Amino acid sequence: MQSFSSLACTDVPIKITLVHVCGENQAGANPSLSLAGLVAPLQSVAQLLGAARFQWQIFSVSTCAEIDDSTIAAEINKSHLALLVSDEVKHSPNSELLRKLTSAIQQARFWGAVGAPVLWLANAGKMQGLRTALPWASYSDANEVAEHAILMPNLFELDGQCITCCGGAASVDFALTVIHALFGADAQAHAMETLCVERVRNGSDRQRIALHTRFGVLQPQLSEAVTLMENNIEETLSTDDIAQLVGLSRRQLERQFKQYLGTMPSRYYLELRLKKARQLLLESNSSIVQIGLMCGFSSGAHFSTAFGAQFGITPREERQRKLSAG
């Protein structure tokens, strides 16, 4: 979220507004999982930094509410980030309310949605040409308009001024990533310690079920190719081998990866192996050399170079962080 971190240079307090859209007669009830995942990290950092540096608020509205534009605009006024948040997958706002909500959040420097509202915005044509982290459970409900969005199976996405997150448990990772971009590693570490979170998933981490739900029927060969990669981490396959095994030409396979996953097969495979290596560095006692070999790297130098390019630190530094935390 490099462009998002530009807000860290502002002299005024950073202001985040969460617009929680809930079902009829549920305003003020227990928060949804997506909302709770955002609130806990933001609340922790707000207490740490104080109102002079960070302010946040929740504005709740029912999906069937009658509300005027000025009321919403007043709540979101001068927000640096405004997000629609909800887990109400089956109950979207009426078109007029959604228009008002969308118009209001778009007045913020950055705007977007977490959870079910990602689908609402996509179906309303607000995500045209934008990389969009649509919750996997919503793919079957996406209409033809949503096809104009670039649907990504990632946990969250930032494209220009628009931010989307699949919601649920990923809301915690998303909030912690935002905190790091705005206030730095110390603020993020404070929130992680408060919430007992050991690891923050990246936005590029995939929604596991999304791959098989979206591609299992519509793109069975793509789903099969991803499964082959996941099952062959140590003894890696070439792109040509994978293409042949799934019944595609290399060019056809590359085209499907580029269209649906936004990357090339070799790059996706490398990232998959590096994420597995990172997991082993943090969760196992195997040596760094052993982990490199277990993840398909022919030498320690090759492993270290690729790991550093992906994560910005060496495998040894990653392992040292684990030891220091312990």
UniProtKB/TrEMBL annotation:
<dbReference type="InterPro" id="IPR029062">
    <property type="entry name" value="Class_I_gatase-like"/>
</dbReference>
<protein>
    <submittedName>
        <fullName>Helix-turn-helix domain-containing protein</fullName>
    </submittedName>
</protein>
<feature type="domain" description="HTH araC/xylS-type">
    <location>
        <begin position="223"/>
        <end position="321"/>
    </location>
</feature>
<dbReference type="InterPro" id="IPR009057">
    <property type="entry name" value="Homeodomain-like_sf"/>
</dbReference>
<dbReference type="InterPro" id="IPR018062">
    <property type="entry name" value="HTH_AraC-typ_CS"/>
</dbReference>
<keyword id="KW-0804">Transcription</keyword>
<dbReference type="InterPro" id="IPR018060">
    <property type="entry name" value="HTH_AraC"/>
</dbReference>
<dbReference type="Pfam" id="PF12833">
    <property type="entry name" value="HTH_18"/>
</dbReference>
<keyword id="KW-0238">DNA-binding</keyword>
<dbReference type="GO" id="GO:0003700">
    <property type="term" value="F:DNA-binding transcription factor activity"/>
</dbReference>
<dbReference type="InterPro" id="IPR050204">
    <property type="entry name" value="AraC_XylS_family_regulators"/>
</dbReference>
<dbReference type="GO" id="GO:0043565">
    <property type="term" value="F:sequence-specific DNA binding"/>
</dbReference>
<keyword id="KW-0805">Transcription regulation</keyword>
